[in-house]
């Protein structure tokens, strides 16, 4: 590559990066158990698009609100100053998608999984499972309720990180385990969740 071409390429890259309106968010501290169990889940090639970034808030919602954009496959945690933390997610495929407004009524670390009756009917091989690296709920789960009624939908980690950015779940919002730990640490019970 000629020097003039290299200089042009570097200048173009610098200009492109200068226009970015986001910055990365450091990983949260994790416990020894979290680190050991997450290490047992096969790593996936990470798409930079699905990383954890501070971005300009595209939602217009109040700070502290979680907004899931199912079309773009991002979850936003709205911050002060018209900013948001954006996480890549996997969402429900078209047949199982869910939208609405709910609240976080329960939080759990490495939760047990008890598949709902509808899922058992579709996939008779699924069985309840204790929390751990093989469990499809991953490292954390945030249980979504409408009023006092459990929607049966969750924001949770995953043992299939390669599917982040896809529409593949049965309606739940899946996150990389390190991302769901970060979100879990930042939100409280009764946090408003909007799934669009």
TrEMBL record:
> Which key words are in the record?
Cell shape, Cell wall biogenesis/degradation, Glycosyltransferase, Hydrolase, Peptidoglycan synthesis, Signal, Transferase
- What is its pathway? Cell wall biogenesis; peptidoglycan biosynthesis
Can you name one GO molecular function term for this protein? glycosyltransferase activity
Signal peptide position in this chain? Answer: 1-18
Q: Spell out the GO cellular component terms annotated for this protein, sorted alphabetically and separated by semicolons.
A: extracellular region
Coiled-coil zones:
none
User: Source organism's superkingdom?
Assistant: Bacteria
Q: Respond yes or no to whether keyword Transferase is given for this record.
A: yes
The alphabetized list of GO BP terms reads:
cell wall organization; peptidoglycan-protein cross-linking; regulation of cell shape
L,D-TPase catalytic domain sequence ranges: 64-196
Q: Where is the active site?
A: 156 (proton donor/acceptor), 172 (nucleophile)
PANTHER family, alphabetized: L,D-TRANSPEPTIDASE, L,D-TRANSPEPTIDASE ERFK_SRFK-RELATED
UniProt family annotation: Belongs to the YkuD family.
Supply the name of the protein. Answer: L,D-transpeptidase family protein
Species of the source: Microvirga makkahensis
């Amino acid at each position: 590559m000629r020097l003039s071409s290299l200089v042009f390429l570097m200048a173009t890259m610098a200009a492109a990066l200068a226009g970015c309106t986001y910055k990365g968010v450091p990983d949260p501290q994790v416990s020894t158990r979290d680190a050991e169990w997450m290490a047992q889940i096969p790593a996936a090639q990470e798409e930079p698009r699905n990383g954890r970034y501070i971005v300009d808030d595209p939602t217009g919602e109040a700070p502290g609100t979680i907004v899931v954009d199912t079309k773009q496959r991002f979850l936003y945690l709205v911050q002060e100053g018209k900013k948001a933390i954006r996480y890549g997610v996997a969402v429900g495929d078209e047949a199982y998608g869910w939208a609405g407004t709910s609240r976080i009524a329960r939080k759990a670390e490495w939760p047990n999984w008890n598949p709902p009756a509808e899922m058992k009917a579709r996939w008779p091989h699924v069985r309840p499972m204790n929390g751990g690296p093989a469990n499809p709920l991953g490292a954390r789960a945030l249980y979504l309720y409408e009023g006092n009624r459990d929607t049966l939908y969750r924001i949770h980690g995953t043992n299939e990180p390669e599917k982040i950015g896809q529409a593949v779940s049965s309606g739940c919002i899946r996150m990389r385990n390190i991302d769901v730990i970060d979100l879990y640490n930042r939100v409280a019970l009764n946090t408003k969740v909007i799934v669009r």
